[in-house]
Amino acid sequence: MYTKKEVCALVDLTSLNAFDAETSINDFLEQALSFEQKGFPVAAVCLFPNFSSLAVKKLEKSKVNVAVVAGNFPNAQGFLSTRLNECELALEAGVDEVDIVLNLGAFDSGNYAHVVEEVQAYKGLMPKRNLKVILETGYLKTAERIKKASELAIEGGADFIKTSTGKDFPGASIEAVETMAKVIADLPSSQKVGLKISGGVRTYEDALAYLEVVEKHLGKDFVDPNTLRIGASSLVSNLMNE
């Protein structure tokens, strides 16, 4: 059984609202710092890339990482050059991690080489920083498609594979996470790829159900912020108030 603090340490505390502004993000970052001060530090905050500089400066004395969604989140449409440039600007601001969305159009078209090449292009910008690739499992639906998308993201250089954007499609599911965990479990021992569960994880019980699946396939040592994350906006507050 994992404690609430152990669960909290896996969380990417998230604010990805259409109405986010400097004032609301400043409050959000203050909340992340207050969690840390109360003994419930999160692994990272995750926000839109235009708030990169604000977050990096605000959290510079904290152990909390700064992650951003980029590459024209949540749909990954648009010119690749502009999507890459958005990542470059965030990286220049000093963010630690970038979450992008897999090219689902190319995936559906069977253009797997292009899917891999895009991920490689993103990873090429951040060789020493984490690239999380969102599969959008609620759209992919079947285990076969989720498995293939996981394999392509990893082939492209993903440091983490992530379930969902939490936007247009259903979020994480136990079945999707199990499929992704099995793909990671089949990798050579020298290849380290993390897993991020995102979308719909709101309670301690929700988190424990996912951790049970992860531990089953990847072992207890995998349940660590370096290899496992939970993307959530309300989970930490719920953990502290339960």
Automatic annotation (TrEMBL):
It catalyses: 2-deoxy-D-ribose 5-phosphate = D-glyceraldehyde 3-phosphate + acetaldehyde. GO terms for molecular function: deoxyribose-phosphate aldolase activity. GO terms for biological process: carbohydrate catabolic process; deoxyribonucleotide catabolic process. Pfam families: DeoC. Keywords: Lyase, Schiff base. Belongs to the DeoC/FbaB aldolase family. DeoC type 2 subfamily. This is Deoxyribose-phosphate aldolase. It comes from Brumimicrobium salinarum. The gene is deoC.
